[in-house]
Amino acid sequence: MVLQVDKTRVELLSSKDAAEIESLFKEVWPTAIEYPEKWRKKRTLSREEIVKEMKGDYYYFGVRVDGRIVGLYKASIKKDTVLGEHQTIHPSYQGRGLATTMYKQLINFAKKKKCKKIHVNILPNQIASKKCVDKLGFHKKGGLWEQAKEMLVQTYEKEV
């Protein structure tokens, strides 16, 4: 399950990638100050936690540039809906269209799994993320809600 754009690849990751994923989380999440500190710590998973999630209900998809994981997200399936979450892009690679590439791959993944909907949660102040999901046909679902203490998010939905 690979989507390739130029030298950028989005692919299903495995437990052999856990150390590299852990390293990316340690680079990105401690400085993602738009999120509450407790949430950032929760998102900085260890390789053991990553492997446990992979063995459970989560699929990890990564963006590789020249062989290095520079972005990722994870997905889970609940009934007929795919939830895309934990999108992480190394600061050096932000603003290069990697999020759009990952969202397109998420749509392909949902189709392959024969799901009817996709949900993603976005902070209200993340304008680039909102533009990205808007152009891919996602729509707001409900109003703002508190995903974590003092962290409001907006759920976006896309029918597939």
CA distance, first residue to last residue: 18 Å
CATH superfamily: Gcn5-related N-acetyltransferase (GNAT)
Measured by DSSP, the beta-strand proportion falls in: 35-45%
Please describe the biggest sheet, giving its number of strands, its sense, and whether it closes into a barrel: 8 strands, mixed
Mean pLDDT: 93
Strand order of the largest sheet: 1-2-3-4-5-6-8-7
Number of domains: 1
The shape, in one word, is globular
> How do the SSEs run, as a string of H and E?
EEHHHEEEHEHEE
Write down how many β-strands occur, each being a DSSP E stretch of 2 or more residues: 8
* Poorly predicted ranges: none
CATH architectural type: 3-Layer(aba) Sandwich
The total of helices stands at 5
What is the SS-derived class? alpha+beta
**Helical residues, percent:** 25-40%
Q: Quick one: CATH class?
A: Alpha Beta
Computed over alpha carbons, the radius of gyration is 15 Å
| CATH topology assignment | Aminopeptidase
Which helices and strands occur, and which strands form pairs?
Blueprint: E1 2-5, E2 8-12, H1 18-28, H2 37-43, H3 47-55, E3 59-65, E4 68-78, E5 81-89, H4 98-112, E6 117-122, H5 127-135, E7 139-148, E8 151-159
Parallel strand pairs: 5-6
Antiparallel strand pairs: 1-2, 2-3, 3-4, 4-5, 6-8, 7-8
Outline the structure in words:
By secondary structure, the protein is of the alpha+beta class. It has one domain (2-116): 3-Layer(aba) Sandwich (Aminopeptidase), CATH 3.40.630. It has five helices and eight strands. The chain has helices spanning 18-28, 37-43, 47-55, 98-112, 127-135, and strands at 2-5, 8-12, 59-65, 68-78, 81-89, 117-122, 139-148, 151-159. It has an eight-stranded mixed sheet. Helix 1 crosses helix 3 (47-55). The longest helix is centred in the middle third of the chain and has 15 residues, at 98-112. The chain is globular. The mean pLDDT is 93.
